[in-house]
Fold:
Amino acid sequence: MPSHTYLDHGLTILNTRMQEPGASSSPRSAGEAPPFITLSREACAGATTLGQLLLPLLDRDFGLESKSWMFLDKNLLNFALSSRQLPERLADMLPEDRISEIKGIIGELVGLHPPLWQLEQQIGETILQLARSGRVIFAGRAAHLLTWSLPGGFHVRLVASKETRIRRMMDLRKCDWAAAEEMIGLSDTARRRFVKTNFGTDIDDPHTYDLVINTDRLSPAAVAVLVHEGLKQRHSIR
Structure:
């Protein structure tokens, strides 16, 4: 398996936290629980920028010595597979949407990978382990639903108008309007289907989040302040 610095560093943190006394205990209130954040997002609503801006704020107010915050965005799936000692190539089989049933069955029959439901279960277990140890920002994989019962979490949904997101995609991918619109539509549909298929829930249901933010007219820094303050309120930190 290829070596990645962020994975090696993250796995070291995970292994250390999992060995700590009380790491798997269940605190009764947010004040007693390790803090963590989940970010659900529409395509190009600003989750990656937000995660990066939050890290120094969270390290300042919620960090502990040798326990800096981690941001798992596009690397979340690879991280989860690596922590289970599974090859990163399996990430291609597990987008935030179901792969073709035929493709999945063939892969299982010829031994390319374990059953997809088993892989998803292992990924979910890794997310829960990380959330229980705290000081992690998760983006995607329906982490808000997986961790909803844990008292330390603060769950955020990022949205923006389609026009704004298309312009951001054009800047990001250096493509024209039509191509950007297609990529936005495919990504949104895939994420919506992933949540509906695996959890029977609408990804846009505001009741599954603590805070829903429209990033159209707010700067990334302002959004980071809102999320940071929300987590502080949840954990009664002034």
